[in-house]
Amino acid sequence: MNISFDNTENAFAYKTDKQLKKAKFLFNTMDYPLFVPIGTRITPFLMKTGLPVHGIIRNTIFQQFVGGETLEETDNVCSLLSEYGVQVILDYGVEGKEGEENFEKATEQFIKVIDYASSQKNIPFISIKVTGIARFGLLQTLNEAPRLRSGIHDHEDEMSEWQRVKDRMYRICEEASKKNIGVLIDAEESWIQDPLDRLTIEMMEIFNKEKAVVFNTIQLYRHDRLHFLKISHQIAQQQNFILGMKLVRGAYMEKERARAVQYGYPSPIQPDKISTDRDFNASIGFCLENIHNVSVIIATHNDESNLLAADILDKKGLALNHPHVHFSQLYGMSDNITFNLAKAGFSVSKYLPFGPIRDVIPYLMRRAQENSSVSGQTGRELKLIKKELKRRKAKVV
């Protein structure tokens, strides 16, 4: 494969000099050791106080990582990405609201996003969090009660509540199936993940008969997820549906380890990064080996994993834009991977959240933490931006 993630001309062709310099300033700021830990603590507080920080956030971190406050505001970003062969995974980024009324509103919003995506040429997927349509405490109860795995439960009120969650999910997936849009179900904390996995499999059995509409997400920093992938594939074969799977490394590591210590159970997290990388790459290999009945989204900022998948496709003589293989990176990060994959002819997207600034603050804080905690991530972004600015300056001279 003649593909390089060092080509900054391809990576940043969609950005003006002014936009690049703005990104450079942001990543430089985020690179200061105390900025992220202090900023992630005080920003949510400042938003609640009514102080005039809305504009500052909108013009900096929000603009870098979010598509807009409304669905309509994402138009410009989606159109721009489309010009460079990059698709979009739309994510309604509102989190943490509970109550049946809010769950219904979120469901309607997800359906609205599906309808919007179906009207656009480069939005093949939307992403949803089940905690947007279900009470966290309910999911935890279901997760902790082994009897529920056989479908038996003695709390009638919770069973009716769970049925409402299933009905919401069905409505979302049914609309997606009608409109030919994929639904990516986000992975969440391990102590609520079991009912999410079972619900997602149920939806796959209904909607993934002819093509992958519903996708589960596995976090490979969990030591049991490669095995779970293989078990899911066995179920798909037995029930005769296409397995939809999004591969990520994970987003809740510190929280997971702390809870395991607090409650005295074995941590679900891999012992080290090498183990995570091994299982992630093994999952890529497994999915591509079973490409006839597995549809996979390789969602990673890791150069090696993306190159591995590209190499396997090439060696197998499969189309680089095979309908069962899709790559994805977060909007605002790893443009060197996304745009070079697109240039080479692969199916690749940006994961593009949108929503009111107040509501997407949790997402933005995670992006800031991720850039500071992932080894060298901010440094890599800075290095690539500086390289491109230097290249452009030399070209002008």
Describe the structure.
An eight-stranded parallel barrel has the order 1-2-3-4-5-6-7-8, surrounded by seven helices. The protein is α/β, with parallel strands linked by helices and 397 residues long. The chain has helices spanning 8-11, 17-30, 35-49, 54-65, 75-83, 100-118, 136-144, 156-179, 190-207, 225-239, 253-263, 273-289, 303-315, 335-344, 357-373, 377-396, and strands at residues 87-92, 125-128, 182-185, 214-219, 243-248, 294-299, 325-330, 348-354. Helix 6 runs parallel beside helix 8. The two termini are 33 Å apart.
Based on secondary structure, the structural category is alpha/beta
Q: What can be said about the biggest beta sheet?
A: 8 strands, parallel, barrel
CA-based shape: globular
Instruction: Give the H and E element order.
Output: HHHHHEHEHHEHEHEHHEHEHEHH
Poorly predicted regions are 148-152
Average residue pLDDT:
89
**N- to C-terminal distance:** 33 Å
- The order of strands across the largest sheet is 1-2-3-4-5-6-7-8
Strand content: 5-15%
Number of helices: 16
Relative helix content = 55-70%
Radius of gyration: 21 Å
Number-wise, the strands total 8
Quick gist of this model?
With 397 residues, this protein is α/β, with parallel strands linked by helices. Helix content is 57%, strand content 11%.
